[in-house]
Specification:
By secondary structure, the chain is of the alpha/beta class. It has 9 helices and 18 strands. The strands form 3 sheets. An 8-stranded mixed beta sheet has the order 6-7-5-13-14-15-12-16, with helices on both faces. Strands 1, 2, 9, 10, 11, 17 and 18 form a 7-stranded mixed beta sheet that branches. Strands 3-8-4 form a 3-stranded antiparallel beta sheet.
Length: 385
C-alpha cells in the first residue's frame, strides 16, 4: 500500500466495535481499511481476554436488550459460517437479593420482548445448582439462551473475515488529527498517510488519548482484574454443563464456568482506579485476589481455596453513565467517534457495526440521543450495567 491510498472509510481500532464496523461497511460495498496499534484482540485491548458474557438482561434498558438480541443472532450466524464454536450457551443466572429492583425490571423487559427466562426460588436454585452459595439471595432469574462469547478469538475471527471479504488491514498507531472541517488524511506513527471519505475512531481506551481535549474528561479508563481458578481434579460440577454463568448484581461480581479448560472465571464489576492502556502495570494485586477469594467463598464455597491458574488486568473505558459514545466529532464532519463500551459493550459489537455503517451510508437516520457526545458528562454516575 502506498502513501496515496484512498478509501471510502478508514477504521482506526480493530477491537470488537472497530472490527464489526469494518466488516459491516465492507458488506455495504465500501472500500475499507482497518488499522490497529497492537493487533486485533491483543492483550492490551478491552477485547483481548478469553471470554465475555452475552446476556439479554439490562433492567429497564430496553435499548440494550434489543441490541443484545440482534447481536447474538449475528454472532451465531458468523460462527456458523466460519465453523467456529465461539459461543457457549451456558445460560446466565441473575442472583437477586431481597429488595433489588434491577432483576425485577429485567424480568419485565424480557417478558415484554418475549425473551425466554425462568424465575427460580431459592429451593429451585439449590436443587439445580448445589455448588452455588446463596447467602443473601432471595430468588434468581435464568436466561437459558444466553451465555459466553470467546472474546479474543471472536474479535480476531471478525477481523479475519473482514480481511477475507476485502478489507485492508495493517498494524500501526494513528496520530491525533489536526484542523477542522473535512479531514483529508490521517498519519500513522510509521509515517503512512491514509486518505478516506470517512474516518471511524473505535479505539476503546485509546480514544481519550487520541482526542485528549475532547474526551479526556468524558471517557474514564479504569483498571479491572479477572481471575481464573482451578477446580479439583475429576470434579465436573464447575463445567458449563453443570454451572451457568452467574451475575451477583448487588455485590458487583460475576462468574463464568470452566470453559475449554481455562478455569472458573471470577471478576468484580466495580470500576477500578484510573489506568493507562499502553504503560499500565498488568500484574494483578493482592487486594484484588483477596476480594475474588471472598467472592468464591460466598458464591462457590467448594472453590474457596482453589489455585489461581490464570489472572489478567484489562480495562473498561467508561462514559459517565455507561451509555456508548457513537457520534460525529464536533470539529470534523467526516470523523466518527465510536467507543465507551463501559465494561458491557463487547456483546453489542455486531449491532454497533450495523449502526455506524448505516449512518455512514447516509440513510439520514438520527443519532440515538443516549449515544451522542452531547450526553456525555465528566462526572461518573453509572446507570447502565
Amino acid at each position: 500500500m502506498g502513501d496515496d491510498s484512498t478509501y471510502d472509510v478508514a477504521v482506526i481500532g480493530a477491537g470488537v466495535f472497530g472490527a464489526w464496523t469494518a466488516y459491516q461497511l465492507e458488506r455495504s460495498s465500501k472500500r475499507v481499511i482497518l488499522i490497529d496499534a497492537y493487533g486485533s484482540g491483543n492483550s492490551r485491548s478491552s477485547s483481548g481476554d478469553e471470554s465475555r458474557i452475552i446476556r439479554m438482561g439490562y433492567g429497564a434498558d430496553e435499548i440494550y436488550t434489543r441490541s443484545a438480541l440482534r447481536s447474538l443472532q449475528l454472532w451465531q450466524e458468523l460462527f456458523t459460517r466460519v465453523d467456529q464454536p465461539l459461543f457457549h450457551q451456558t445460560g446466565v443466572l441473575w442472583l437477586a437479593q431481597k429488595g433489588d429492583p434491577y432483576p425485577v425490571k429485567t424480568a419485565e423487559t424480557l417478558r415484554k420482548l418475549d425473551v425466554p427466562f425462568d424465575s427460580l426460588t431459592v429451593a429451585e436454585i439449590r436443587r439445580r445448582y448445589p455448588q452455588i452459595g446463596l447467602e443473601r439471595i432471595s430468588w434468581a432469574l435464568l436466561e437459558p439462551e444466553s451465555g459466553v462469547l470467546m472474546a479474543r478469538r471472536a474479535v480476531q475471527t471478525v477481523t479475519r473475515e473482514a480481511i477475507r471479504n476485502g478489507v485492508e488491514y495493517f498494524q500501526d498507531a494513528v496520530k491525533t488529527p489536526e484542523g477542522s472541517g473535512s479531514l483529508n488524511e490521517i498519519t500513522t506513527a510509521g509515517g503512512r498517510r491514509i486518505s478516506a471519505g470517512n474516518y471511524v475512531f473505535a479505539c476503546g481506551p485509546w480514544l481519550p488519548k487520541v482526542f485528549p481535549d475532547l474526551l479526556a474528561d468524558r471517557i474514564q479508563t479504569t483498571r479491572q482484574e479477572v481471575f481464573y481458578f482451578g477446580a479439583p481434579a475429576g470434579n465436573r460440577s464447575f463445567l458449563a454443563t453443570e454451572l451457568p454463568t452467574w451475575i451477583d448484581f448487588k455485590d458487583e461480581a460475576y462468574g463464568l464456568p470452566d470453559l475449554e479448560g481455562r478455569g472458573v472465571k471470577i471478576a468484580i464489576d466495580r470500576h477500578g482506579p484510573a489506568f493507562d492502556p499502553d504503560a499500565g502495570n498488568r500484574v494483578v494485586s493482592d487486594e484484588g485476589l483477596t476480594e475474588a477469594r471472598q467472592c468464591l467463598a460466598r458464591r462457590l464455597p467448594a472453590l474457596k481455596y482453589a489455585p489461581v491458574i490464570e489472572a489478567r488486568v484489562c480495562q473498561y473505558e467508561n462514559t459517565a453513565n455507561g451509555d456508548f459514545l457513537i457520534d460525529r466529532h464536533p470539529r470534523f464532519d467526516n470523523v466518527w467517534l465510536v467507543g465507551g463500551g463501559s465494561g458491557h459493550g463487547f456483546k453489542h459489537g455486531p449491532v454497533v457495526g450495523e449502526y455506524v455503517a448505516t449512518r455512514i451510508a447516509g440513510n439520514n437516520e438520527e443519532i440515538e440521543p443516549r449515544f451522542s457526545l452531547e450526553s456525555k458528562a465528566s462526572e461518573q454516575k453509572r446507570a447502565v450495567f
